Amino acid sequence: MTQPESLSRRAFVSIGTNVNREWHVEVARQELLNAFGAVTFSPVYETGAVGFDGSPFFNLAAGFDTDQPPEALVARLKAMESRHGRQRGGERFADRTLDLDLLLLGDLVLDAPGVQLPRDEIIRHAFVLGPLADIAADVIHPVLQTPIARLWETFDPAGQWLRRVEVLPSD
């Protein structure tokens, strides 16, 4: 009898925080490492709030392999956010302790309640696409059929700003 083929796919997640930023970047790193083992992280970028007048954000991207279905993975990310004070039900554009968004899961294309893959923010926001390009440059956007690096090279920031910052993991 042969073993079933692994359903493991590469997941890419956007991480954002503008509340106690250094702390929440480290919390996100540790949560993802504990949950998924080997995780690749982009550099951290400081960016302006989009859609509201708020404090600047720290944003980064993470990539890891998982065999979890998209709905379970999104639920797990939401649970991580909730454990660290993420408030839901308020304004859509507001301060965030921790925001974890599933951007890509292999070449999966899905539009279901609570799960959109690939996430449309990839091509709309510098704070998503820039960090993603750092760790997924050769990944092909499953709808646009264009490498992430090429999307970043041709991205029009339209007033968005992005500045790389050093945020060192705590020991």
How does this model look, in words?
Helix content is 27%, strand content 25%. The protein has helices spanning 21-36, 70-83, 126-136, 148-153, and strands spanning 9-17, 40-41, 44-47, 57-66, 99-105, 110-112, 115-117, 162-165. The radius of gyration is 16 Å and the shape is globular. The N and C termini lie far apart (46 Å).
Name its key features.
171 residues; alpha+beta; six-stranded antiparallel sheet; two-stranded antiparallel sheet; 4 helices; globular
Concise account of the structure shown:
The protein is of the alpha+beta class and 171 residues long.
Residue share in β-strands: 15-25%
Mean pLDDT: 88
Compute the CA-based radius of gyration.
16 Å
- Please give the number of β-strands: 8
Count of separate DSSP helical elements: 4
How are the elements arranged and paired?
Blueprint: E1 9-17, H1 21-36, E2 40-41, E3 44-47, E4 57-66, H2 70-83, E5 99-105, E6 110-112, E7 115-117, H3 126-136, H4 148-153, E8 162-165
Antiparallel strand pairs: 1-4, 1-5, 2-4, 3-4, 3-8, 6-7
